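User: Hi! I'm working on a homework problem where we have to compare a predicted structure to a textbook description. Could you give me the structure for the chain below?
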Amino acid sequence: MMITLATEEGEKKEGKEKKNVSQRMDLILRSEITREEEEEEEEEEEEEEEEEEEEKEKEEEEREEDWTND
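Assistant: Happy to help. Predicted structure tokens:
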């Protein structure tokens, strides 16, 4: 009887530990996914800024060409 109770308690503790490890791994994976998504968003924003800068430069060059042609 004592052995059975000790075994059941051990199994309960083991189950809880596995659950805790599983929850921690889930949190780690979620935070990694979130981090990757944030990095992707930052890259997209940087690309958009670069494109806007390039457009502005082209517009300025066109204005200068128009001005010199007049």
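For your comparison, note the following. The radius of gyration is 30 Å. The chain has a mean pLDDT of 88. Good luck with the assignment!
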